[in-house]
Write a structure and sequence with these properties.
Layout: H1 2-6, E1 11-12, H2 14-21, H3 25-38, E2 42-44, E3 53-55, H4 60-85, H5 91-125
Antiparallel strand pairs: 1-3, 2-3
Helix pairs in contact: 2-3, 4-5
């Protein structure tokens, strides 16, 4: 991630990342996979080249906030499913699951506000 943040080009290949970050090519593949899952990086086609390039959005943090919604939804659904499927849970366990569900729902509802404020902040800064 550090290499992508300071790369001079919009997209770089895995070999450049490995060399620039001083890590193995295998580490780069694993890291890029995780960064993609988290919404921090993406792969783009490279004209005339079989391998794809790794890129990071200029506003990766706003993108992370936008992509986090799917994670929150999955976690909310997991808690909801557990509450439905495990009716014999203790009050403490049910409260933990209910708090998990409600926190994910609350945070998801707040995302529009967070994104709006982030965009306002960037506009004032720029």
């Amino acid at each position: 991630m550090g290499y992508l943040l300071v790369a001079d080009r919009e997209a770089v290949n895995a070999e450049e990342i490995a060399e620039g970050a001083g890590v193995s090519r295998g580490s780069v593949s694993q890291s890029v996979r995780r960064l993609r899952e988290m919404g921090f990086a993406d792969l783009v086609e490279s004209p005339g080249n079989r391998s794809r390039l790794v890129t990071m959005d200029e506003d990766v943090w706003g993108g992370f906030l936008r992509n986090e919604r799917s994670y929150l939804k999955r976690q909310r659904e997991l808690a909801e499913s557990a509450l439905e499927r495990l009716p014999g849970l203790s009050a403490h366990a049910r409260n933990r699951l209910r708090n998990m569900h409600d926190y994910m729902a609350w945070l998801d509802d707040y995302h529009d506000t967070l994104l709006s404020r982030w965009e306002e902040y960037k506009a004032r800064r720029d």
